[in-house]
User: Fold this.
Amino acid sequence: MKTRRTKISELLKSEQTNIDVHVKGWVRTKRGNKHVNFIALNDGSTINNIQIVADPNSISEDILKKVTTGASIAVNGKLVESQGSGQSVEVHAETIEILGVADPEKYPLQPKKHSFEFLREIAHLRPRTNTFSAVLRMRHAMSFAVHKFFNEKGFNYMHTPIITGSDAEGAGEMFRVTTLDAKNPPLKEDGSVDYSEDFFEKETNLTVSGQLEGELGALAVGEIYTFGPTFRAENSNTTRHLAEFWMIEPEMAFYDLEDNMDLAEEFLKYLVQYALDNCADDLAFLESRLIDEEKNKPANEKSEMTLTEKLRFVAENDFERVTYTDAIDILRNSKPNKKKKFQYPVEGWGTDLQSEHERYLVEKHFKKPVILTNYPKDIKAFYMRMDDDGKTVSAMDILFPGIGEIVGGSQREERLDILMSRMTEMGIPHEEMDWYLDTRRYGTVPHSGFGLGFERLMIFVTGLGNIRDVIPFPRTPGNAEF
Amino acid sequence: MKTRRTKISELLKSEQTNIDVHVKGWVRTKRGNKHVNFIALNDGSTINNIQIVADPNSISEDILKKVTTGASIAVNGKLVESQGSGQSVEVHAETIEILGVADPEKYPLQPKKHSFEFLREIAHLRPRTNTFSAVLRMRHAMSFAVHKFFNEKGFNYMHTPIITGSDAEGAGEMFRVTTLDAKNPPLKEDGSVDYSEDFFEKETNLTVSGQLEGELGALAVGEIYTFGPTFRAENSNTTRHLAEFWMIEPEMAFYDLEDNMDLAEEFLKYLVQYALDNCADDLAFLESRLIDEEKNKPANEKSEMTLTEKLRFVAENDFERVTYTDAIDILRNSKPNKKKKFQYPVEGWGTDLQSEHERYLVEKHFKKPVILTNYPKDIKAFYMRMDDDGKTVSAMDILFPGIGEIVGGSQREERLDILMSRMTEMGIPHEEMDWYLDTRRYGTVPHSGFGLGFERLMIFVTGLGNIRDVIPFPRTPGNAEF
Assistant:
């Protein structure tokens, strides 16, 4: 009969004490003297460790010598009320078995502060740190909240294709997917590469968005969402860009722009509230990490709110809804614009907003999340619905403090003739998108959708500053390790 | 004030009648005469239609003319108890608005039987059919059940990388991901392609499995699972292979082979039970579809059980656990082997089982799902744990009736020295997998995991015969449409 281990998350919540327990995990630290040893043990089920108390009289020196940071052990012992402060229960070890050693001379994760840059280089081990295990658990919690939210609303999760033969989305540079010989590709008579010899008999790329295929689903079963990887082959080495990232893209038949905004706002609040309700321990750790990180910053660079205050603020306050046109007026008349403090002065109507403008609106003017709507058609995609003024489209972007754009969406153009003339205007060949146009030819309906960059959300809920630290194995220019 | 639409799934469950309702959807059929029209309306929220009763005296002929199969309409009316059979409620239309027409001369989905081959060519429209909307809804239900199961068990969903620089997994042919010029790639002095000029500064491919990265997570936080797209560039044109498919791969620290089997069996039963509990209407439709399809087959080719009987059978019966060695004995002494009915006769110990052998074990001998364990090491991957006999590894494959292998897994080799000598034996360079070996150098623990091909599961729960019909946009050799 096997002894079942109890997870540390359960032990720490146990209402029973003086019971035999079996616990396994990785040693975070060991301290003590010749009379007693205290081992902080973690198994990843929670950010909190359980304290193992080992008496050198009953546990051999040979074993205790191997109990070093990073080693894995199995402990049989008694769960008892803790005498010390900081924890409610501890385990008095009867036996300790060494499962795997971790040579202190070589193991890279010694109990000291490591820079995030260093930890990125050992991304295969960094989930064993407090910060990155907290991020991993919260990534799970946020992912589950996404599915739970949409499931409760009757949406269908749809797996849109990752490899796509369609290149009309225009959302950015793409990665080519191929099995052709890299050095000597087959050529056509005119000297160009003969993709008819490639695996899919045409040129294929990694998707930049599942939206267009998502619309096909919504126009059949009403409401769908995607949650999958998307790709941009852009040479951006910033703290906010990845070459491979995860997106959530709901598409809804019969939703107009207002319904779309209502859903997006409800969704974001739900996710943030879910984090508050389900990730209290990890959030508390990340909050104190952030306070620690900002300790030495000048007062004007420190966050005005703590991490949980910021999350609560978003969960509890209505987002400000303002048209692009009104936002331009606000920006034009703003102090930084008049004092020429913006790098890009705001003058005319029609140009895109820069991140400094978005930050001003969110962080200084409204001091809350902002939904910007009805952008000029020329700075938005072909599929966004034309407004009656003929100048703007029914787009909406949600801007978050510290993040900028977290959601981008629109009502989609459901009118075949207008959609086709927009495509012509923007140089998109109709033939290639015939399948998309079919949805407007047959039983077209008003519909809407938006996209949420999952890693942007993760930056917001964890308070981390670099997008490379909220995904397990970041892909950026020159980096595809592990 | 906007009138909110009510979904048809809710209308059909409504306990109130004689209330004003607003319903939108796509016309499936219209029949009737000059006194009354019956419109079967579907909005994708359920496989069932609601009947709209339209009186030509109150709805203009001009409108009714446009109410054709595939057209989208908005109806205001009264929900009343139905006089006819087959439905409990219907809507008596007061107004009908045409949202989008569907020219009966051109719309491809007329109310008649279409072949699955034809529907694959119009995969952008096929979710508007009963069968494919049922599959889409069930794909959602099964996906959600996956997340719910693991969330309840304290597993963490982990996004392992899609683009990988690691090519040691050896699970199959890979797709190259590149931004190099396809025709004139940069070359090194020795004439080979200079991948240091590629986006990631090395050769990169699409992942064939997230397992190895998943292990990194499990060896930090205990229990993780992946659920993401995986890729095989294999030229297989069969009813069971896709170039792009979704896999679920849990990895668990502190699990041995038996724990692994227990989890996999519990998981599969949970998924099947979830389908029975949550997809009754879609299952009923798919079951009758299957009966209809098999109507003209000879008796010995017909399914012995209906679709729901088959699901109930799996949910309620223990899987048979048998070692490879015992299975070989059973097969060697089996009637088809003695009568030379197998295409591949079973003789010695050590060769891999063919699908005909798996089917015999599952469908004829045990007549239930089978877990085959402890395969010869030479036919399994390097990371599977060596058994004490030095001949077999702690692998386990789960075989399902009609599907064959649905799950493949193993206890992982946690002993550094044995793992390294297995890698040497199999020609896998240690340097390339140094990050993987680190997990065995530092705090190694016994651990296990398995992979479930999501589309194989979908074939099982829907009763469809071709894997191309259980994913929205199948990718196969020569096919990457939409």
Observations:
- DSSP finds 14 helices and 16 strands in chain B.
- The longest helix of chain B spans residues 130-152.
